[in-house]
Structure prediction request, 238 residues.
Amino acid sequence: MKFITKYKSENYDIRVGEIKFIILHYTAMKSLDETIKHLCEPSSKVSCHYLVTKNGEIYQFISSEKRAWHAGDSYWKAIKDINSLSIGIELENSGHHIDFEEYTSNQIYALMDLIKDLKIQYNIKKTNILGHSDVAPLRKMDPGEKFPWHILEKNNLVYLPKINKFILNNSPNQDDIEKYKINLKNIGYKLPKNDHNSDYFIKTNRAFQMHFQQDFISNLPNFNTIMLAQKYVEEIID
Ligand SMILES: [Zn+2]
Prediction:
């Protein structure tokens, strides 16, 4: 693959452990120039390995062998140092707090080519390709509900649970919610025991929906949300 390598970031250190995740982000900035500057200037203390632009160009700032600083305080399946075990890919998009425009097809096809290569090179599992919001749901919403996970799934790059969706007249009861929470934990999310209306549960639920139920983003799950999580746990054996 062709990468643009004229910009380098020194915002990295040494990995502790082997690569097993790819974490997807949006840049949340207005311009590409601003983004590149931010990811490369030492004072920002953030970086990523790759940046995929709207026109499908890919910048590489840091070797995949190094530990880039993109995930921050994060968690997945009891792993806390996600940066050590992941490759961070930024997608040029202004994000929820600005315009949150659609991702472009050039961008998504370039991203998929990159993921195909990385998956083979590092033997990364479909279920270990995650959004920043999956590993840091309290702080982050990227890449957001407009990110087309279904296109990656069609190209055999990621896993998505599929269910026959129901038209819903009622809401899940407390038992359903408790089972859903257990499933979220088994999938990989961090979820301490607490009231289901808490901020933590709301944001984790929204992170799950932004990834797996993009047509229904809400503070609480509906029955389809709960069935999707159940299906995930039934189908995926790690
Ligand atoms: Zn991010």
